[in-house]
Amino acid sequence: MAAPLNVGMIGFGNIGAGVLRALESNSKLVDERVPHPIRVVRIADIDTTTKRNAPYDPAILSADTDGLLADPAVHVALELTGTIGPAREFIERALQAGKHVVTANKALIAQHGTDLLRLAVKNKVCFLFEAAVGGGIPLIRTLHQGLAANDIQAVRGIINGTANYILSRMTDEGVDFAAVLADAQRLGYAEPDPTFDVEGHDTAHKLAILATLCFNQDIRFDDIHREGIVRVSAVDIAYAKQVGYTIKLLGIAKKNDDGSVEARVHPTLLPADSRLASVNGVFNAVRIDGNLTGSVILSGRGAGPEPTSSAILSDLMTLASGKAEGGLRREMRLSIPTDPKRIRPMAELRTRYYVRLGLRDVAGALAQVLTVLGSKGVSIESMNQPGGEDKGHAHVLIVTHEAQEACVQESLREVQKLEINRAEPFLLRIEDMG
After folding, report:
1. Is the pTM of this model over 0.85?
2. How confident is the model over 318-328, as a mean pLDDT?
């Protein structure tokens, strides 16, 4: 038998246990498809007493991360701690020691991934993270290899299952955000503190990774404009349906003609007949537009131990195959230029908008609003006033023609100052995809 690829796992939670279960259940298949068998030979975790739901030898589990990183018999460090500061230290030390690294740590990569890629290249080892975006959907390697000949022009994704589940339920049942969130928490689809998911942080982490790979710029979490779904109401969902749209939390990154990149996360109106609009529940989907392929859509389960383990094992199998072939040059060459990145300010975005206003139901109210919008160069495509009142005000729902973000935001600030205004204006952007 060929010498094994020895893996040292750092962090032994649900994902780590899932990796061991997957290795056992698919061991025959994995061993047949790679020339070097994959073996987890050491595990480091601060909890050495809790029995995990996975097949493992307790003798290989310890709290000795230093020993694992220093062990020359460990070829790959598999980082699964879910931290940022400690994980970065572990990964840097592993790379500097000449070990390959595999991780699923999206938050770390979104903030420090390009630095770690450069360190891996410097030390002639691989830093792989297929599991960081989309769970079991093979996004990273598709971008890095399958679409490598393409000039990527845009990437758009539903890449948070919790937010997609909530919006899908709101759309299907016509209920408000708070009720669906409470149910999602009860079912385990949402965390007790759901901020990370519903405010767009998780989506922004993943979009930073995708945008960096698509456009070869050092795009990080703090570069992403971010809005969540907490203010989306049943009124917005119903009107979107009426005008042929579906609301989804999207991560959107596009390359402009001048080479700058726009990168944003927000709830978005999508044409109801578009492929992304049909992706519901906890499923994820990403559309990648290349100049040779046109639109490519990948969809599947975006989270959970089994899909994530599939992605992690694909990285380990890549290393096991490359080890036999005498080189992993294609994996090692992935590096991001140090040139200054060019992020287009959100204020310069041009698109169509949906706006919900809460106004006193008095004569002349709509005329005042139209005057303000017109003064800022924002023209109206359609307007609707559903019957009834909500907390003492009438809803006015507006869809604009294409306008500039800065002009729309300024007009809404002016509307908010009007005496007839009774609620904070709410804005959604429209993404008309060909």
Report:
1. yes
2. 70
Q: Cα(430)–Cα(277) distance, rounded to whole angstroms?
A: 12
Active site residues: 206
pLDDT of residue 189: 85
| Residue 273 pLDDT grade (very low, low, confident, very high; cuts 50, 70, 90) | very high
Q: Is 251 helix (H, G, I), strand (E, B) or coil?
A: strand
- Element (DSSP H or E) covering residue 42: strand 38-44
Q: How far apart are the first and last CA of the chain?
A: 52
- 8 Å CB contact between 280 and 168: yes
| SS3 assignment, position 240 | helix
Q: What pLDDT is attached to residue 102? A: 97
User: How confident is the model at residue 83, as a pLDDT?
Assistant: 95
Determine the average pLDDT of the residues in 36-57: 96
Share of the chain above pLDDT 70, in %: 95
Which pair of tokens denotes residue 254?
Answer: 């596009």
The domain made up of 346-430 is a member of CATH 3.30.70.260: yes
Domain ranges of the chain: 5-136+305-332, 143-301, 346-430
Lookup: tokens for 151: 């000039």
Task: Give the C-alpha separation, 208 to 251, whole Å.
Answer: 9
Given a cut of 60, is residue 327 above it in pLDDT?
no
Rounded Cα distance between 425 and 419, Å, is 14
The full length of the chain comes to: 434
Q: Is residue 304 scored above 70 in pLDDT?
A: yes
Separation in Å, CA 281 to CA 72, 205, 300, 402: 45, 20, 11, 31
3-state SS class at 165:
helix
Superfamily of domain 143-301: Dihydrodipicolinate Reductase; domain 2 (3.30.360.10)
Distance from C-alpha of 355 to C-alpha of 331, rounded to nearest angstrom: 46
The residue-averaged pLDDT of 77-87 equals 96
Residue % of the chain over a pLDDT of 90:
85
Alpha carbons 163 and 173: distance in angstroms, whole number? 15
- Spatial distance between the Cα atoms of 245 and 388, rounded to a whole number of angstroms: 23
Superfamily designation of domain 5-136+305-332: NAD(P)-binding Rossmann-like Domain (3.40.50.720)
